[in-house]
Amino acid sequence: MTVAVYLPLLVSFVLAMSARPVAKVLPPRAGLWTLTAASMIAGAGTVWTSLLLGSLLVDDIPALDAAERLVPIDDTVSLAAAVLLAVGAVRSFLAVRRLLQARRRLRRLSAMPGGDFLVVADPRPDAFAVPSRTGGGRVVVTEGMLRALDAGQRRALIAHERAHLRARHSVALSLGELAAAMNPLLVPVRRAIGFLCERDADEDAVAVAGSRRLVAEALAVAALARSTSAVASPLAPGFHQVSVADRVSALLAPEPVTRGWHLWAVAAMTLLAVGASFDATRDFASIVVMLVMH
């Protein structure tokens, strides 16, 4: 096999190293879904090429001893790929189980009486969005959070949480979680996806509130209120409190300028992973044909 079989892993490494700084300059909405697609393709590409490499251990079967010289991959590499594949399978199983558990908790919240805005009698400050399979959902806010904010800040906070529902950010977060489970190198990319979800919702809240400073103040006050709470609300699904300082700085800066070349760079790396996976598959097929013929 050529170097192509290792490129998805290299792309994952580059994405991991660049995810944090790149997320700060990407346009939030487009950057979020571009980075999510890149992480899923890099994760799936790593799994696929690991499967190809691990499968070449077949030359160690006694009946196929004569075919060992036809396999251009050292057994150590194939064994490492098999281990990586096994680790990814276990991590993916655990990630899916966590996501299903979270979904069950959210379904219980969706079943509570009330409309798309639910106030919970809880003195601990909290607020979050509860997505639904139908594309709607509801915003849940505790009485403690409402007391911590003034009227304008409440409006900004609610607009932020509703933006999460409209943009289906829960889908991006779930996909990022699965990609990081398939390939642990992509954990920083998963964090960057969470940051871009919040930045996207922040910018939507600015459009509703009409003031970047107001949204920044609401975010800072809400984060401070949560930090002084003795115990986090048991209702929270855990999709908030992401990079508060960076988000406040972005909101207090001038409106972000779209930098298209960053998007194209991420897209190019994604296409590289796709092309490398196809090339590695072609090489693998050639090796299989030779093994069958011999």
UniProtKB/TrEMBL annotation:
Which cofactor does the UniProt annotation name? Answer: Zn(2+)
Pinpoint the Peptidase M48 domain residues. 110-175
Highest taxon of the source? Answer: Bacteria
Q: Name one GO biological process term.
A: proteolysis
**Keyword Transmembrane recorded:** yes
Per UniProt, the keywords (alphabetical) are:
Hydrolase, Membrane, Metal-binding, Metalloprotease, Protease, Transmembrane, Transmembrane helix, Zinc
Q: Name one Pfam family in it.
A: Peptidase_M48
Kindly indicate whether the keyword Transmembrane helix belongs to this entry.
Answer: yes
InterPro entries attached to this UniProt entry: Beta-lactam_resp_regulator (IPR052173), Peptidase_M48 (IPR001915)
Q: From the Swiss-Prot or TrEMBL record, what is one GO molecular function term?
A: metalloendopeptidase activity
The coiled-coil regions, if any, are none
Task: Give the protein name, as stated in the record.
Answer: Peptidase M48 domain-containing protein
